[in-house]
Amino acid sequence: MAECVRRLINILTDERNRGYDDEVVIGGLASYIENWSRQARAEGLDSGLIQEIVSYLLGYHGKPQSARAEAVGASLSRLRQLAPTRMQAQAVPPASAPEPGPAVQPTAAAEPGTAPQPAQGGEARLEAPAPRRAPHVSLDAPVTAVRGIKEARARLLARLGIVSVRDLLHYYPREYHDRSTLKTINQIAPGEQVTIAANVFSVSTRQPRPGMRVTTAVLMDGTGRVEATWFNQPWVETRLAHYREILVTGKVDLHLGRLTISRPEWEPLTSESLNDRGLTPIYGLTEGINQRWLRKEIANAVESFGDLLEDELQPQLRQELGLIPMQQAIATIHHPPDWDGLDQARKRLAFTEFLMLQLGMLQRKRAARQAEAAPLTVDEKWRSEFESALPFALTAAQSRALDEILGDLAAPHPMLRLLQGDVGSGKTVVALAAMLAAVSSGKQAAFMAPTEILAEQHYRTFQRLLEGKEGRPFSGARVLLLTGSLPAPEKAQAQAAIAAGDANIIVGTHALIQEAVAFRDLGVVVVDEQHRFGVEQRAVLSAKGRQPHVLVMSATPIPRTLALTLYGDLDLSLIDELPAGRMPVITVLRGEAARESIYAFMRDQVRRGYQGFVICPAITGSEDGDVRAAVDEFQRLQESIFPDLHLGLLHGKLTGQQKDETMRQFAAGAIDILVATSVVEVGIDVPNATFIVVEQAERFGLAQLHQFRGRVGRGSARSYCVLMTDQVENAVLKQLETGAVDCSSLPTGVQRLDAVRRE
Questions:
Q1: What percent of the chain has pLDDT over 70?
Q2: Same domain for 477 and 525?
Q3: Which pLDDT tens digit goes with each residue over 228-284?
């Protein structure tokens, strides 16, 4: 008899002798049986028997005494019937088995269907059953080549970008639910991610407002009750009606004093679902496809086609880098045995993605270095005259970046450089110098910004810096603005001026890359907020000249090593200090108890003549009310908190014209407080704004929070960033409050903290 069987018989016998009080083991029998089932599988006990015993004792703590007695009796009876023949056969090597030899490498004559397996001293390729697929089918075959996927489902998968077998294998889970520990309802608490087995007591669907349907199921297990809620999934009611017991996984919340689980994953309670617990992959879905079906088909694809996956790394290199084979990584990412195995799979897949990206970028950089471009040379006198004409002195970091850029411009091949610096660090004036160098050589320069508001701000900045200036660096500079909202006659006039060379510094948006725009002689291209544009858009603008020099700018904090990977085709210049006199923004974390004092502070700032922002993580609210929404917050603040002030609302669902008009009003001082979503992350420069309040700050990444903070502190007045959160002791968020991540250290700090936050 197996040790696990003997041990459980003794425990159940003691439980019966104690009168079924569920105190024979710490945590109760239901908790113990989970660990026992894993040990039993490890000892080779028949899986059917394990599932049977688990089903008897599941939810034991919530059972009445008579039911406990019945469960213990049935379990003991079943275990005592166990005979040695019920144990799965264990492979025992013969006494004369030869010593294991070196790892066997695959050969050209290897049988199809083999897969690499780790082996001591190397990686062996062991024989495996031939995969179930049609002969001569490749990974690029249509997804219907996977058994179980018909044309109708293939059309649904296409919505997710899954067209081929390869696409399906590389469609990774967006998250994982840990179902290794099963809890009773009386053991769960708000904020926990849990898995429970419960009876469906009732289920109903209501429509609180047009376009919103809420399905609620009341679940019970003998120890308590909990509500499960789904939004705009009315089919859940129909499906739940067919099952009495279900397995539910989700996050527990407290709503109006009741325990709730919003948007949970669920499946019928079966011996299979009980046995298949651990890390469960959760995929992005589309209507008509559910998690269970997609998991099954991906498992089919891994089984049938996984052996066709190419591995770019040789075994020796993989061992040196501590990376698992690609086939193992794909199988593990879709069905991880534990968190450590998942980390190994993620590490391998991330390495491969970065490697392919880096190789592609280096190839692009090599091609650019072989191209020829017109050198744009300026002398030291030109440089001196430019700097002396500015109303401020360049920082050491700006001077260093300008040295690097002017050096690139003087070379006979096109410049490809990333200028990275904190918000307000002075990237724009450095870009202006590059464009003036083009003008001095008789060429044109284009400056492309992601929004019309930002383009207009840069246009005004360039005009202000060039106004009244004479001398070689500035002579002949004619600035023009081209945006999509210009009236047709003005747009045609601007396009004609660009084509004739009458304008030589052209500031604009995506309108610059329209087919109707032709430059006479484009020498320098500047792209602001690089991450808001694709490589293709940058290439289209560059193609409007004959190998122009390209400078891209970004305030998004990226560590140098990551920047060299993501932008491997670009050289990197870093402005890592702020101009003199610029005061750092004071950042504080505050909880709900401080809300009234925060409102008083905001009112005082407006009374002093300043403006500010309130940032919300969503546009409209959800039925469960767990997210602060900009639309609701704007109405509440305007009607109940600041009825005497002028508030504005800005979010992504407004038209471009509406957004531009709101921002113009805010920039002009007509709006005291602007309630917005993350749409304000870039492209807003209002020196009079001195405070920004970020609601539910824990819902944003640290890089985003830093960008929000950069919306204030752009003038001479002291500025403040208030992070409202119910996690005031959050160690990661506190990095912003304590100054561990500030304007001088952020290019490395913020992204590193973001990485830690995601782990």
A1: 82
A2: yes
A3: 998 888 888 888 888 788 888 888 888 777 889 988 888 888 766 666 667 889 888
With contact defined as beta carbons under 8 Å apart, do 685 and 714 qualify?
A: yes
Asked if residue 678 lies in contact with residue 615, where contact means CB atoms within 8 angstroms, the answer is yes
Neighbouring CB atoms inside 10 A of 338's CB total 12
Q: What is the pLDDT of residues 657-691, one digit of tens each?
A: 788 789 889 989 999 999 999 887 665 778 899 99
Q: Are residues 566 and 593 in the same domain?
A: no
Its pTM stands at 0.57
Dist CA 557 CA 554 (whole Å): 8
Burial, 455: exposed, middle or buried (Cβ in 10 Å; 0-12, 13-18, 19+)? buried
CA-CA-CA-CA dihedral for 563, 567, 569, 573, to nearest 10: -50
208 assigned to some structural domain: yes
User: Does a structural domain hold residue 456?
Assistant: yes
Same domain? 624 vs 526: no
**700: helix, coil or strand?**
coil
Report the distance separating Cα 340 and Cα 215, nearest Å: 37
Sheet architecture: strand order including 586-590: 586-590, 720-724, 689-694, 611-615, 673-676, 647-650
- How many domains does the chain divide into? 4
Residue 660 shares a structural domain with residue 515: no
Q: What pLDDT shows up at residue 175?
A: 84
Q: How far is 520 from 523, CA to CA, in rounded Å? A: 10
* SS3 label, residue 561: helix
| Length of the chain counted residue by residue | 759
pLDDT in tens, 503-527: 999 999 888 988 889 999 999 999 9
Q: Which domain holds residue 493?
A: 380-575
- Is residue 568 located within the same domain as residue 427? yes
The Cα 525–Cα 501 span in angstroms is: 15
